[in-house]
UniProtKB/TrEMBL annotation:
Coiled coil: none annotated. This is Sel1 repeat-containing protein. InterPro entries: Mitotic_Regulator, Sel1-like, TPR-like_helical_dom_sf. It comes from the Bacteria.
Length: 828
C-alpha cells in the first residue's frame, strides 16, 4: 500500500482523536517516532494541530521540534521508494508551509528539507528563497546558515563577500557559531576555546548541542582524538546526534583493526546515515570495498554508494561510477556513465575529469574531444590544478582544443596550475622556460620554477635542477647536482636512481669513485622495471663493477632490459653470444640482437650488424653491411667509418676504389678515433699525397690507442726509418706489444729481432718460439726463417729435413725465396 493511501488514514485518525492534537504530540517519545509509520502518524497529528493554530501554539511548536530537530524526519523517509518519497516531501513541505507563518524559524526548516532532499528535488533556488523568508523575519539561524553557505559556495552560488557580511551582521549565537567554523577551517584557533565556553553557557538545548558538536570539531582539528571520542560518546548517549554518531564510528574504526571494532563502526555509520549524515554512506560504501588483501563486499559497497548518491553525495556517485566502469564484478558502462553524470551534477571535480578523459580517449564512450575539452575547461574555471595542467598539455600538443599547438596558451595554463602548487604544472612551466619552447629560453625563470618544484618534492624538478648545476647553467657544481639527484633517488625516481648511481660509480661529484655504493641505486631502479637501471645491473654483474662478477645475473638483467626495449642491453646480449660469455657461441642470436638494436636506431647496434654482414658472421652481404655501416656513420660512429674505410682500402669486392677510404679514415680521425688505415693511406698515397712522416704520425697515434695492427706498423716504421729516425729498440718494443696480441707479422719480427739481437738482447730460444707461433699460423716469412735456422743450426739443432719442411710450407704460402729454393714457379 502506498504512503499516500496510508497517510490519508493517519489524517482521518488524527481528526478523530479528539480536540487537543497538540497534547497528543506532547505525549509522543523519541523512540516512538523512530519508525516510518509512527513518524508519519505524528506528522498527520501535527498537520491537524497546525490547522487549529494559534490554539496550543507552544505545544504545537514543541511537537514540530520533536519531529524535525533530531533527524527523525530523515529517518522516516530514508528507505522509501521514489513514489512514496515524493509524497512524503510534498506533504512535509505543505505542513511546514502552514506552520511557518506562526513560527518563522520553520522557514529555515523548509530550506533544510530542500537542502537534504534526494536527487533533483534538492532545489538551490528554494533553499535561498526560504532562507530569505526566514531572514526577513529576523531568524538568526537563517542568517548564519545562508552566510555560511554563500561564503563557501555550498549549494548556493559562492559569494564570500555577501556571506561574510551576513555572518558579521550581528553577534547572535548562531553567527558566533558559524564564524567559529570559519576560523577553525582557516586554522585560526586562538579564540575558539573561549567561544566554546561562551556557547556552552546558553540554556537552549539546540544551541548547547551545536556548541558541543563545534567543540568536537575543534578537538578533531587539534588532534585530541581521545577527548573528541569522549565528547561524541556523550552526545550519542544524550541526543543521538547524527554527526556525533558518525564521528564516533570513524574514530573507533581508525583506532582498531579488530573485526568487532569494524562491526561497531559500521553499525554507528548506518545509524548516522539514517539520521541524515550522508557522509556515513560514503564510509560504509568505501570500507566495504576489497582492500589490503581483504575480500570486501562489492555488492554491499554498491548498496551504500547508491544510497549516498540518492542524496546527492558526489563522492558516492563518483565511486559508484568507477565500480560500474572498471570493476570486473560490477561492469555496467551505462550505469557507470549515469552515476558519473550524477556526480558531475553535484559538482564532483573528480567526475568531471573522469568524464573528460573518457570522452577524449573514446574507449568506454563515443569519442567526443570537444565535449571532453569543455568539461576540462569547466573544471579549470573552478581552479582545479589537474584540469589546468591537462588543458595546458592539450594546447601544447594541439590535441582537442586547437587544430595546432598553442604554446603560449599552454604556458598560461601551466603557470596558473603552478601557482596552485600542482607539481606537474610546475615542471611543465619550468620546462618551457628551460628549453625555450616559446622561442627564447629563460634560465632564471626555469630555475625559479624548478626550485619551487623541489619544495613541492617533485623528483623531476630535482633532477632537472641538478642538470642545471651539472651543465653550468646556474653554476657548475657537481656536488649540488649530485645532492639533487640523490634526493630524487630517495623518492625512488627511476631516472634519478640511474643518474645518482652513475655519479657514485664515477665519483663525478667528489673525485672518489664508489662502484659498490652505486650498485644498490642501479638495483633499486631495476626492481622498479626501469630499463636503463636493468642494463646497468647487467653491466655491473658482467664486469664485476661494484658487485662480484656473475654471468647468469648479467644475462638475466640484460634480458630484462632488452625486453623493455633497451638497445644497449640488446647489443651486450649479442656480444655475449659472439664471445661466449655465459652462453654458448650462437652467431644467429648475436646477429638477431644486433638487428633489434639497429632497428631501434642505436648506432653501435647498426655498426656491429654492418660488421657482421661485412665479415660473414652468419652470411656475408657487403651491400647490407654498407647500408648499416652508413647509418651508424651518419649517427656518429667513428668505428663504422673505419670499417667502411677498410672496405674500400682492402677492396673486399674488387671494385678498385681504395681512394674512397681516406675520407672515411679522416672523418673517424676528426672524431678522435684513428687506426692504421690513415697511416697506410699516407704511406702509399691512397686518396691523399704520400707522406711517410704523416703515415708514421698516424700509425703511432693509433698504436697509442691500443690498435694492434697500428703497433705493428709503428714497429715497421722504426725498423726501416719510415717517416721517423730508425730505432731498433723502439721497433722491437712495438713489435713485441703487437705480438702479445697475436699479430702474426709482429710475432715474426719479434722472433727475428730476438734471434739476431737487433734492438734487444739476443735470445735465440725465445726468438725461435715466436717464429714457431707465427709459422704455425701460416706466416710465410716466419716459415722461411725457421727453415734457415734448421738449415744452419741457428738456435735449433741442425736438421736438413726440418729445414726443407719449413721451406716447402713457406713456398706453399707464396714466399718467393722459398719457391726458388724448392724449385717452384709462381702460379703453381
Amino acid at each position: 500500500m502506498s504512503l499516500k493511501t496510508t497517510y490519508t488514514t493517519y489524517q482521518q485518525n488524527a481528526k478523530d482523536s479528539g480536540p487537543s492534537p497538540a497534547i497528543a504530540l506532547q505525549k509522543l517519545t523519541k523512540d516512538e517516532l523512530k519508525t516510518t509509520k509512527s513518524w508519519h502518524q505524528a506528522l498527520a497529528i501535527l498537520e491537524h494541530a497546525t490547522s487549529l493554530l494559534p490554539e496550543n501554539s507552544q505545544e504545537v511548536f514543541e511537537g514540530y521540534e520533536k519531529l524535525f530537530m533530531g533527524g527523525l524526519d530523515f529517518k522516516s523517509a530514508v528507505y522509501l521508494d521514489e513514489a512514496d518519497y515524493d509524497f512524503h516531501l510534498e506533504t512535509v513541505i505543505a505542513v511546514l508551509e502552514r506552520l511557518a507563518p506562526h513560527f518563522p524559524v520553520v522557514y529555515s526548516q523548509i530550506a533544510f528539507q530542500y537542502r537534504e532532499a534526494r536527487g533533483t528535488r534538492r532545489d538551490p533556488a528554494k533553499i535561498a528563497q526560504y532562507l530569505d523568508k526566514a531572514i526577513a523575519q529576523n531568524v538568526d539561524l537563517a542568517i548564519a546558515v545562508k552566510g555560511y553557505l554563500q561564503y563557501y559556495g555550498v549549494i548556493l552560488e559562492k559569494d564570500e563577500e555577501t556571506g561574510l557580511r551576513l555572518l558579521q551582521s550581528s553577534d547572535s549565537v548562531w553567527n558566533k557559531l558559524y564564524r567559529g567554523y570559519l576560523s577553525l577551517n582557516k586554522g585560526e584557533t586562538e579564540g575558539i576555546p573561549a567561544l566554546i565556553a561562551d556557547l556552552k553557557t546558553n540554556t537552549d538545548p539546540l544551541i548547547k548541542r551545536n556548541a558541543l558538536l563545534f567543540e568536537g570539531h575543534y578537538l578533531d582539528h587539534q588532534g585530541d582524538i581521545d577527548a573528541a571520542k569522549v565528547l561524541y560518546q556523550g552526545l550519542v548517549d544524550s541526543d543521538e546526534s547524527d554527526f556525533a554518531i558518525f564521528r564516533l564510528g570513524t574514530i573507533i574504526f581508525s583506532q582498531s583493526e579488530e573485526p568487532a571494532a569494524k562491526e561497531q563502526a559500521f553499525e554507528l555509520w548506518k545509524n548516522a546515515f539514517e539520521l541524515g549524515t550522508i557522509e556515513a554512506a560514503n564510509h560504509l560504501g568505501y570500507h566495504s570495498l576489497p582492500a589490503d588483501e581483504q575480500p570486501g563486499n562489492v555488492d554491499q559497497a554498491i548498496y551504500w554508494f547508491e544510497l549516498g548518491a540518492r542524496y546527492n553525495s558526489n563522492f558516492s556517485a563518483y565511486r559508484l561510477a568507477l565500480l560500474y566502469l572498471y570493476a570486473p564484478q560490477a561492469l555496467n558502462i551505462e550505469e557507470g556513465i549515469y552515476y558519473l553524470d550524477e556526480a558531475i551534477r553535484n559538482d564532483s571535480l573528480d567526475a568531471i575529469i573522469e568524464k573528460a578523459e573518457l570522452l577524449i580517449d573514446g574507449s568506454l564512450v563515443e569519442k567526443n574531444e570537444e565535449e571532453g575539452a569543455a568539461l576540462l575547461k569547466q573544471a579549470a574555471a573552478k581552479k582545479l590544478p589537474y584540469a589546468l595542467n591537462r588543458l595546458g598539455y592539450l594546447y601544447e600538443t594541439g590535441l582537442v582544443v586547437t587544430d595546432q599547438p598553442d604554446l603560449a596558451t599552454a604556458l598560461v595554463h601551466y603557470e596558473e596550475a603552478a601557482e596552485l602548487d600542482f607539481p606537474t604544472a610546475v615542471n611543465n612551466a619550468a620546462r618551457f622556460y628551460r628549453y625555450g619552447l616559446l622561442g627564447t629560453a629563460d634560465q632564471k625563470k626555469a630555475q625559479e620554477f624548478f626550485e619551487k618544484g623541489v619544495e613541492l618534492n617533485s623528483p623531476y624538478s630535482m633532477t632537472e635542477l641538478g642538470f642545471m648545476y651539472e651543465d653550468g647553467t646556474i653554476e657548475e657544481n657537481y656536488q649540488k647536482a649530485f645532492d639533487l639527484f640523490n634526493k630524487a633517488a630517495e623518492l625512488e625516481y627511476p631516472f634519478a636512481l640511474h643518474t645518482a648511481g652513475t655519479y657514485l660509480e664515477n665519483g663525478y661529484h667528489n673525485q672518489n669513485p664508489d662502484p659498490e655504493a652505486a650498485f644498490p641505486y642501479f638495483l633499486k631502479g631495476a626492481e622498479m622495471d626501469y630499463a636503463n637501471c636493468q642494463f646497468e645491473v647487467g653491466r655491473c654483474y658482467r664486469f664485476g663493477t661494484g658487485v662480484a662478477e656473475n654471468p647468469d645475473k648479467a644475462l638475466e638483467y640484460y634480458r630484462l632490459a632488452a625486453e623493455a626495449g633497451n638497445p644497449k642491453a640488446m647489443v651486450e646480449l649479442g656480444l655475449c653470444y659472439e664471445y661466449e660469455y655465459g652462453v654458448s657461441f650462437d652467431a644467429q642470436k648475436a646477429l638477431d640482437y644486433m638487428q633489434q638494436a639497429a632497428d631501434l636506431g642505436y648506432y653501435y647496434g647498426q655498426y656491429k650488424l654492418g660488421y657482421y654482414y661485412m665479415h660473414g658472421l652468419v652470411e656475408k652481404d657487403t651491400e647490407k653491411a654498407l647500408q648499416w655501416l652508413e647509418k651508424a656513420a651518419e649517427a656518429g660512429s667513428a668505428h663504422a667509418m673505419l670499417e667502411i674505410g677498410d672496405y674500400y682500402m682492402y677492396d673486399y669486392d674488387h671494385i678498385d676504389q681504395a681512394d674512397k677510404s681516406f675520407a672515411y679514415y679522416q672523418k673517424a680521425m676528426e672524431m678522435g678515433v684513428v687506426h692504421e688505415g690513415l697511416g697506410l693511406a699516407y704511406e702509399y698515397g691512397i686518396g691523399v699525397e704520400a707522406n711517410n712522416a704523416e703515415a708514421f704520425k698516424y700509425f703511432e697515434m693509433a698504436a697509442n690507442n691500443n690498435y694492434v695492427d697500428a703497433m705493428y706498423h709503428t714497429g715497421r716504421c722504426y725498423l726501416n726509418g719510415l717517416g721517423v729516425k730508425e730505432n731498433h729498440e723502439e721497433a722491437f718494443r712495438w713489435f713485441n706489444e703487437a705480438a702479445q696480441s697475436n699479430n702474426l707479422s709482429a710475432q715474426y719480427y719479434t722472433g727475428s729481432l730476438l734471434l739476431n739481437g737487433k734492438g734487444v738482447t739476443m735470445n735465440k730460444e725465445e726468438g725461435i718460439e715466436w717464429l714457431n707461433r707465427a709459422a704455425a699460423e701460416e706466416h710465410a716469412g716466419a716459415q722461411f726463417d725457421l727453415g734457415n735456422c734448421y738449415l744452419m743450426g741457428d738456435g735449433v739443432e741442425e736438421s736438413e729435413d726440418t729445414a726443407m719442411y719449413w721451406f716447402e710450407k713457406a713456398a706453399d704460402n707464396g714466399h718467393e725465396k722459398a719457391m726458388k729454393l724448392t724449385g717452384r714457379k709462381k702460379g703453381r
